[in-house]
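User: Sequence for Sigma-70 family RNA polymerase sigma factor below. Tokens please.
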Amino acid sequence: MTALEFSYQVGNFSKFLKPFALRLTRDGDDANDLVQDTLVKAYTNREKYMDGTNLKAWLFTIMKNTFITQYQRMVRRNTFIDTTENLHFINSSESVQINAAESTFMREDINLALSHTEEMYRVPFLLYFEGFKYHEIADELGLPIGTVKNRIHIARKSLKQHLQMYA
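Assistant: Structure tokens for Sigma-70 family RNA polymerase sigma factor:
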């Protein structure tokens, strides 16, 4: 296969690389970088491609291996090794456990703070928090828009006071 034919074929298959890169990286900029790295490696290693084999699969393999190599480098860079006798891995992502305990405590504290807020302030605040606009809340509650804004402001101040531990 000539260099021109190879370039043409790679150009045809390059449109399939971006969705695969997005699935691997889950980030648009990183996906673009991965596609670019893949194409650079494909062009620089053109002589390693054997005619008659699946070029699309070859490109996908280059992309997958490039992603794995970059990921391993990132993990190694973010892991600190303790050089004492025990050789503990510090900040290793393998030992991190994520749970919802902290967010559960925060949610409970927020609900408790809301229960201590007077209803006339709590209702407009909750409607605003749910995404309603000021004028929609005013129409729903039959209040002037200035009153709605004032009550939401007072509810925020009350919540801020009750939730000082999170400041």
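The CA atoms of residues 36 and 63 lie 10 Å apart.
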